């Protein structure tokens, strides 16, 4: 009997769904990896942060890893590729909650909500302050216009925002008014009101944003990183914000997580710090299972053309 090993616990109703739908499969759910179970596992379901090279070595029966996350940078890529283990993930399930999170931050800044909240806390009635502006008519750059970027573009266009996408190929992307190659980014940055990165962590994207990128941006621009923290070097970002080269930064990801309590980023007044929670939702696991269940059905029939199959060495 096939053994599917979840290296995290999940909601009892979702577990029961699997047990009812796949009586021919043995499911094991653990919060910590048990090497004895691992050695027998045909399939592993993981968040992608707990598997080591040693685990892959122990899991001699392993043929497929399903990652209930979009990022796989913490997994032992080479060892997995060497064993030719298939990897698939839940790319796309973040698009609704993440797009709503990005939009919430943009509207909060545009409509001066932090100022309003602070005045309420201090019992101050002031109709004049906060300097509110409007989102409509803005130009937003979406760097990495995949599933999340497309959903964000769809919503922003409803607010009459001009959406410009940047990807590797420069080929048109859904809900982008224009699309260019990432290598052309510097040529267009001066016209951006909002710059949103949803890039994964790869060799090409590490420290992609340099000082000159921020120099080219409007001093009123909002820079938002919702992809991976190594897009910008932390010390560089601190310098940019201290020099007020841009209007505001909204960061959901950081080079070091959790962000240390002594980081200078906490002290700046032109930054919003979100603790890598923009994709969180009470419906997260439910959405993950909506991808996993059809994939498991295929797998049991001997099919390997699964949704969101990845090239583990490329990281996506």
TrEMBL record:
Keywords: NAD, Oxidoreductase. PROSITE patterns: D_2_HYDROXYACID_DH_3. InterPro entries: D-isomer_2_OHA_DH_cat_dom, D-isomer_DH_CS, D-isomer_DH_NAD-bd, NAD(P)-bd_dom_sf. Residues 103-278 form the D-isomer specific 2-hydroxyacid dehydrogenase NAD-binding domain. Transmembrane segments: none annotated. GO terms for molecular function: NAD binding; oxidoreductase activity, acting on the CH-OH group of donors, NAD or NADP as acceptor. It comes from the Bacteria. Residues 15-304 form the D-isomer specific 2-hydroxyacid dehydrogenase catalytic domain. SUPFAM superfamilies: Formate/glycerate dehydrogenase catalytic domain-like, NAD(P)-binding Rossmann-fold domains. PANTHER family: 2-HACID_DH_C DOMAIN-CONTAINING PROTEIN, D-ISOMER SPECIFIC 2-HYDROXYACID DEHYDROGENASE NAD-BINDING DOMAIN-CONTAINING PROTEIN. Belongs to the D-isomer specific 2-hydroxyacid dehydrogenase family. This is D-2-hydroxyacid dehydrogenase. The lineage of its organism: Bacteria, Bacillati, Bacillota, Bacilli, Bacillales.
